[in-house]
Amino acid sequence: MATQRPAGVIKDNLRANTNLRVALRMADTSDSTDVVEVPDAALVDPSIPGRGLVKTGPGRVQAFQSGYAGGWSTRAPEKAKVLVSEFDFGRETPWEEPTEDADADDQDDLGPNDQQRLVARIGEAFTGAGLPVPRRPWLDSLADVYDLTLLRQRTDTELLIGVADLPEQTLAMPKGGVEGEATITVTLRSVEVAGDTMEVLWAFRWDEDGAPPTSKLTFYDMGLSAVTSVIDGENLRVYRPFCTKGGWDARPFDQAMCSNSQIAAPRSNTDPEFPIHGVIEAWALLPAPPERPETVDVVPAEGIPPFGGVEVTYRDAAK
Fold it and tell me: Under 8 Å CB-to-CB from 243, ≥6 apart: which residues?
């Protein structure tokens, strides 16, 4: 997490769960204290760009110097510096080095700087190695204008009025928290299909005011079940994660075996325990819908309301 104005943003629960903290030069001692618990970051000399402090634990604060990649380096040898002085009786008069025309320097095209060259070389190496394009951790930007007549209407009783970006919802924890009421914030990252596999990426965090900073809960404690479902309402199909034992449509015993062997994380209702205020990244692999629907409804875990009208990204060229 990064912030330019830590005042009011960094709470006690965040401090308790963040061991590594980095602060570059700050304008105010209170901001420095909020981040690294000492005022030193506000006392950094402005003439030393890149100087900062890093806190790695209680009482462990160390100054560091970060590098600057926005300059221009060259293979040409550095020009030797020659100092010439006149020695008069009782004093020394240094000669001034002739200065070059400033306008001429401004007109020189130095080309791409070191940072731009580094990015270009990494891109060339990636292309030359023939590596697959990695999954983007963000969704496509929303368009400026949408034709609502081209978007699927859910039912006769629901009116489609727009398109939402990065679905997220906060709900009351079904079973309550450690000492009282708690909330769960769920974010749906993406639904992507590659070949015969559909991948659902999502994340969640649970919060409770007043709970000890070391509090942990399992899915069972929260009143949730670690089973992801994808619903293709247009074709009346429901998909659940692959499993190595049992089956979802079999007897209850076989369903339990399937749940415990599903290809997903997390996949158990009792293990692991999730820390308070910690963001947990979750995923599940499910069969790809053969009808290739444009949108689906997603239930990340049983007990969480579904995300409706989620766009499906197909990794292959055909659509």
Answer: 257, 258, 259, 261, 262, 263
Both tokens assigned to 159: 């009116």
* Cα three-residue angle 224-229-234, rounded to 5 degrees: 140
What is the distance between the alpha carbons of residues 215 and 179, in angstroms, rounded to a whole number? 10
Distance CA 208, CA 222 (A): 12
Cis peptide before 266 (omega within 30 of 0): yes
Q: What is the pTM of this model?
A: 0.52
| Dihedral (Cα; 27, 28, 33, 36), 10-degree rounding | 0
Task: Give domain 165-314's CATH number out of 1.10.150, 2.40.128, 2.60.40, 3.30.160.
Answer: 2.60.40
- Where exactly are the structural domains of the chain? 12-65, 165-314
How far is 79 from 82, CA to CA, in rounded Å?
9
**Chain segment 191-249, per-residue pLDDT in tens:** 999 999 999 999 999 998 888 888 999 999 999 999 999 999 889 999 999 999 999 98
Identity of the residue numbered 240? R
Contact 299, 226 (CB under 8 A): no
Q: What is the dihedral of CA 66, 69, 75, 81, to 10 degrees?
A: -60
Give the tokens for residue 268. Answer: 């158990």
Reading the block at residue 259, the tokens are 């749940």
Residues whose CB falls within 8 Å of the CB of residue 116, separated by 6 or more in sequence, listed in order = none
* 34 CB-side CA count, 13 A: 18
Query: Omega of the bond prior to 306 within 30 degrees of 0, cis?
Result: no
Count CB atoms within 10 A of the CB of residue 306. 16
The single-letter code of the amino acid at 6 is: P
